[in-house]
Amino acid sequence: VSYIVIPIICGRNVLTPEQFDRLMLALSFVAIPNLVGLIAQLYGYHSAFLVDEQTITASEAHVRYTSFVGGALALGMISTITALSSAYWLLVRQQYRVYNLLILVASIICTYFSYSRRGYIILALGLLVILWRTYYFPPVTRKTLLATLFFVGTALLTLIFHDDVGSIFPRIASIFDFQNDPGNILRVVKWIEALDTIGTHPLLGVGFGESGTLGRDPSELLNVEEVFSAESYYLQLAMEGGILVGAIVLLLIGKVVFSSLNYVRHDHRTLLTTTILVVVAVESIAGTAITSPLTAILFWLAYGINGAILGKDIRYVQDRVQHDKTFS
Predict the structure, then answer these.
(1) pLDDT score for 174
(2) What is the CB-side half-sphere exposure of residue 33 using CA atoms within 13 A?
(3) Comparing C-alpha atoms, which of 104, 99, 109, 101 is closest to residue 36?
(4) Residue 275 to residue 264: CA distance in whole angstroms
(5) Position 211 pLDDT exceeds 70
(6) What mean pLDDT comes out for the span 131-135?
(7) Is 37:47 a contact under the CB 8 Å cutoff?
(8) How many CA atoms lie within 13 A of 294 on its CB side?
């Protein structure tokens, strides 16, 4: 479904940029129940819907919170997307400010306590894309930008000191630790295994759905080290569909992402879709969030919207050049 059905349906420009912005505005409300669930976990409440996870950073185990989402990585990814949506509505659209400010704060708090390193990275990257484009806006918008940055910075410092600086900085630093961090070591092992599998099945791959955890029976996943997953969307595509399929998808995504970054400098209508494209495309280098239905739907909707706009713009330029040649 995530490989074929969702890209085909959602990648056919079924929405306009305005409709996508409104969709993201509505979906961002999920940050509120996520924050409620997180607060319940922080105060020691546990149930079948609120389950803590454990991770090891710098040889010390600590809790990762999941809220109602059910997984720390999923909480980090969803919270990152809602944070970027609310930041866009605050800085660019400048509408529903109180609501979006609440969503932004709730999303950042949830991302923080998920201790998702990829969540930290792509949140920073997405905010950079929005801030980069906002720089070209009028001075009034820049004042709003500075006020928002101050507020967000204050919130982050409060969270960091509340945590006694005991987990967040080591967690960020461990992103580049491939010698002592168990998660990074396992990720590298799975990358190597994926490359070996690609070398063994270069043309047709092992078949779609033969790796990863989606749709699998829980009894097959008792030992995480035995889960057959590439820990990279692009490697997983090449492993399951063959090198040609992986290369085509990588080129198509890369082309639209880079073209969108260039286009958004002149037309801010696609800023939110471009931001979603950039952060998910980068996350897919060392993650597979795009294989989850929600992320896949949002990514391929953004891909279809930007692809259609870019195609129309190119055709307009080509028609204009042909018109000028005809009458010159």
Answers:
(1) 65
(2) 10
(3) 109
(4) 10
(5) no
(6) 77
(7) no
(8) 13
152 or 25, which is more confident: 25
CA–CA gap between residue 115 and residue 262 (Å, rounded): 32
- CA distances 279 to 133, 276, 313, Å, are 15, 5, 24
Query: Given the structure tokens 């079924």, which residue do they identify?
Result: 14
CA atoms within 13 A on the CB side of 70: 2
Q: Is 323 exposed, middle or buried (0-12, 13-18, 19+ CB in 10 A)?
A: exposed
Give residues with Cβ within 8 angstroms of 264, minimum separation 6: 133, 270, 271, 274
Instruction: Identify the DSSP state of 119.
Output: H
Structure tokens at 99: 């609501």
Distances (CA, A) of 32 to 37, 42, 83, 117, 297: 9, 15, 12, 22, 21
Conformation bin of residue 67: beta by default, left when phi > 0, alpha when psi is -120 to 50 = left
Name the amino acid, one letter, at 213.
Answer: T
Length of the chain: 328
Residue of 44, 47, 50, 114 whose CA lies nearest to 82: 114
246 — phi, psi (to 5°)? -60, -40
Closest C-alpha to 121, from 165, 174, 164, 69: 174
Tokens found for residue 102: 């609440």
pTM: 0.81
Which tokens sit at 7?
């890209």
**What average pLDDT does this structure show over 23-31?**
96
